[in-house]
Design a protein that fits this description.
The protein has 15 helices and two strands. By secondary structure, the protein is mostly helical. It has one domain.
């Protein structure tokens, strides 16, 4: 753990609080005592998912990749509140990710089951006439994989490097939760992630909706610290694979500007050792009989 100068501490606290306080989502991460989560606290996922900088950058990158797939794009754009209220939508998604990783397994299973039931009602046709269902396994695999890729790449790029073994560990640790969502074919290693990218690349396409999404997120108060808002969005584009950026038409002007990578790496490193005791990662550690600062040492 580290202590920060007053202004920087307030910025990091604001960023973390922004992720915690999500309207309509309340999970008790602190009880019952000893209740295991879907993954173990000594795994890589617990360390990666505690970092709000990685979550925000990775979450935006994941949505960019999701919207590149026309069936996913149509489902998201026509059946969710993303266009009306992107800030709440993204914060709820982040909180759901925290629930999946840190909550008692029973609570995580209940939350996931609710998502699966809600997805059962989402179906239709793309503008090109292709049918889609939100619970289609191929689409679930893509959504789950892009989320894992986004969070992990953001952590690797802006927080600290991960070894090949650690990278594989992130994907392997998500296998149980992926299966609960119905994503039985989600990648379980970095190699499987690359194989999925190769299989899905021919199905991805450029769409004005991706650019509309970027405009919406730029205009929305996604972050409590305005100076970090646009750099984090540009960072999300930066970690999107180059071949996907080419398909989508996201050229260099959408990427990071001079000095921004250093700023984000500083924030990412600070956030990785900055403990907020009532945040889900710390509460989950205490529930498991570990020190609150277990993930922050």
């Amino acid at each position: 753990m580290i202590a920060l100068p007053g202004p920087l501490q307030r910025r990091v606290e604001a960023l973390a609080r922004h992720m915690i306080d999500v309207p309509g989502m309340t999970v008790d991460f602190s009880a019952p005592a000893g209740a295991p989560a879907l993954s173990a606290p000594d795994g890589v996922s617990w360390r990666v998912m505690k970092n709000p900088v990685a979550l925000i950058i990775g979450g935006v990158a994941a949505v960019i990749l999701e919207l590149a797939e026309p069936r996913v794009r149509t489902g998201v754009w026509e059946h969710t509140s993303f266009r009306r209220d992107p800030m709440t939508r993204m914060r709820r998604t982040g909180y759901a990710a925290w629930t999946t990783v840190y909550a008692p397994a029973q609570a995580a299973r209940a939350m996931i089951a609710g998502v699966v039931r809600a997805h059962e009602r989402i179906k239709g046709q793309t503008p090109a006439g292709a049918p889609y269902r939100a619970n289609d396994e191929e689409l679930l695999n893509w959504v789950h994989a892009t989320a894992g890729f986004g969070f992990t790449e953001a952590y690797r790029r802006f927080v600290r490097p991960l070894t090949a073994e650690e990278l594989d560990g992130v994907y392997a640790e998500g296998a149980l939760s992926a299966a609960l969502y119905g994503a039985h074919g989600a990648p379980r290693s970095a190699a499987e992630m690359e194989a999925l990218f190769a299989a899905m690349a021919p199905k991805l396409e450029r769409s004005d909706i991706v650019f509309e999404f970027m405009q919406i997120v730029r205009a929305a108060p996604v972050l409590p610290v305005q100076r970090l808002h646009h750099p984090m969005i540009r960072a999300a584009v930066e970690i999107t694979p180059a071949w996907a950026r080419e398909i989508l038409g996201l050229d260099r002007k959408y990427g990071l500007r001079p000095g921004e990578e250093t700023l984000l790496k500083t924030m990412g490193a600070v956030a990785d050792r900055f403990l907020i005791e009532d945040a889900p990662p710390a509460q989950a550690c205490v529930r498991m009989g570990l020190p609150a600062n277990y993930l922050y040492r």
